Amino acid sequence: MTPIALAIACLTFVTLGYSALCAASPFGTCRKCNGFGFAMDTDRKGRPKRGKSCRRCRATGKRIRVGRWLFNRAQRIYREGTH
Hints:
- A hairpin with a 5-residue loop joins strand 2 (about 40) and strand 3 (about 50-55).
- By secondary structure, the chain is α+β, with helices and mostly antiparallel strands.
- The radius of gyration is 19 Å and the shape is flat.
- The protein is built from 2 helices and 4 strands; from the N terminus they run αββββα.
C-alpha cells in the first residue's frame, strides 16, 4: 500500500471515528474545569476548596463537542434554507 493511500485510509478512519463519537456522546468534559464545574482553589493552609463556578460550561462540567456543534449548525442552516 502506498503511503498516500495509507494516509487517506487513516484520515478516513479518524474522521468516521470522531463522527461516531459525536453522534453517540455529543457532550464532553469541560477542558477549563476538568468536568468539576468549578475551579479548584486552596485555602491559606494549602487545603483544596471549591472555587468559583466555571463560566465556560456554566457549572455543569460538560460542553458540546466541536463536531456536534458543526453538525447542529449545518442542520439549522439547511432547515432554515428549505422553508
